[in-house]
Design a protein that fits this description.
Elements lengths: L13 E9 L2 E8 L5 E2 L6 E2 L2 E14 L2 E14 L3 E4 L13 H11 L4 H8 L3 H17 L8 E10 L3 E8 L5 E6 L3 H18 L2 E4 L3 H10 L4 E4 L1 H23 L4 H8 L2 H5 L10 H10 L1 H14 L7 H17 L3 H10 L3 H9 L5 H17 L5 H11 L5
Parallel strand pairs: 2-6, 8-11, 11-12
Antiparallel strand pairs: 1-2, 3-4, 5-6, 6-7, 8-9, 9-10
Helix pairs in contact: 1-3, 3-15, 4-5, 6-7, 6-10, 9-10, 11-12
């Protein structure tokens, strides 16, 4: 079919020259019309001189279930500013191999579906879809105003199996994810402070984290004026792993000749780790019976509640008295895992005390980490960690 007069709104400035149905889809040849002035694709300036012509093959939106291929004749112009350049086309980006509306369609569905599903939906190659999605994400992040954080929250999440982790850093005030990087060592998070720069590092007043020595040392090096605040959840979780679990295993081993009682102790892990107010009513008698029958488990369970009290005082002298009482009780308990935990916790007292001045925690990051897990499951994992980190930052742009 040849028709130089057939104009359609999809392809502004062009008319259909040829139409062909093939096995792999519909092929449409487009030639430029002379209705609009020629503009440079680089600076949008009006150009008068045509330097040459060439053809480009482009994918467009599917029509009636058939893939649409466009063979577009483009003109190369002579621009006073840019030199030799291609003409500006409203529906086709510079150097693009897909039309703008197809790119917008892909970007829209990439917000809701994994890349592999969008590939099946559009018939595009995986790399093409990911490139379109990456450009969209980079555009969103570039449009955000420059972050000026004063309080940070830092945490880690599992990136792959085999104890491979990534670190996520959040603006605690705006809830914007500022940075994501692979690893949880000092070297892994150092690029964040290089990105932040000396001026913004001086603005940081407090940083909430778990008892990660690498995080602590790196923050103190780059933000010496900032106070490190240790999160209650992580301290209690560490207590559960290092004290309650260890004492439970030791008591089960001690009762190896009393098999019924040994099984009761061995199977009580989640019962002991739960807060008493969260224990189901039907399990409460079992917990009370277990604690009454085992002095070591009773002591560690009570000391867990006492540990939480260290985050509740409102006056420094109250906190100091509660801190000294807890350390003395841990030391006097004669329970080796508890004594060892108290000794390890002692150097971190400033970070626990800082909670009174800076009532911060990493709870916001825990919620973000849960959503990150959902993103990983939806995509069946990511081949490119940098692309995954880009999606995380775009998913949490912060509150306006």
């Amino acid at each position: 079919m040849h028709d130089n007069n057939l104009h359609l709104p999809f392809w502004e400035g062009f008319s259909i020259w040829n139409f062909d149905c093939r096995a792999d889809g519909v092929w449409i040849s487009l030639i430029p019309s002379s209705e609009k002035p020629l503009r440079c694709s680089g600076c949008a300036a009006v150009c008068q001189q045509i330097h040459g012509r060439y053809w480009r093959t482009v994918r467009d939106m599917t029509m009636l279930g058939e893939p649409v291929w466009l063979q577009v004749q483009l003109r190369r112009l002579r621009c006073a500013r840019c030199g030799s350049c291609s003409e500006h086309v409203s529906w086709l980006a510079r150097h693009a191999r897909v039309t703008r509306r197809l790119a917008q369609f892909v970007a829209l569905w990439c917000e809701r579906l994994p890349v592999s599903h969008v590939c099946k939906l559009t018939g595009l190659h995986w790399e093409t879809v990911r490139r379109i999605e990456r450009e969209r994400l980079e555009g969103q992040l570039a449009a955000l105003p420059e972050a000026q954080p004063t309080r940070l929250a830092m945490d880690e999440f599992a990136l792959f199996k085999g104890h491979r982790y990534a670190t996520v850093i959040l603006d605690a005030d705006t809830r914007q994810v500022l940075w994501v990087g692979e690893g949880r060592s000092r070297e892994a998070i150092r690029p964040f402070f290089a990105w932040l720069g000396p001026q913004r590092c001086r603005q940081i007043e407090a940083v909430a984290m778990d008892m990660n020595t690498a995080f602590d040392l790196e923050v103190r090096q780059h933000c010496p004026q900032a106070r490190v605040v240790y999160d209650l959840f992580h301290v209690v979780a560490k207590y559960g792993r290092e004290v309650i679990d260890r004492v439970r295993v030791d008591e089960a081993n001690r009762l190896r000749h009393d098999r019924p009682q040994r099984q009761v102790v061995k199977r009580s892990r989640w019962l002991l780790l739960r807060n008493k107010e969260n224990v189901p009513a039907d399990k409460l008698p079992k917990l009370e019976e277990l604690l009454a029958a085992n002095q070591a488990l009773m002591t560690t369970y009570v000391m867990k509640d006492s540990l939480k009290e260290l985050w509740r005082p409102t006056e420094p002298w109250q906190w100091r008295r509660a801190w000294n009482n807890w350390l003395n009780m841990a030391r006097d308990s004669a329970i080796e895992p508890l004594c060892r935990f108290g000794k390890r916790l002692q150097p971190y007292w400033r970070g626990i005390l800082a909670r009174m001045r800076w009532p911060m925690h990493t709870g916001q990051l825990e919620g973000i980490n849960n959503r990150i897990k959902v993103m990983k499951r939806m995509a069946y994992g990511y081949r490119d960690s940098a692309f995954f980190f880009l999606k995380i930052k775009a998913a949490f742009p912060g509150n306006p």
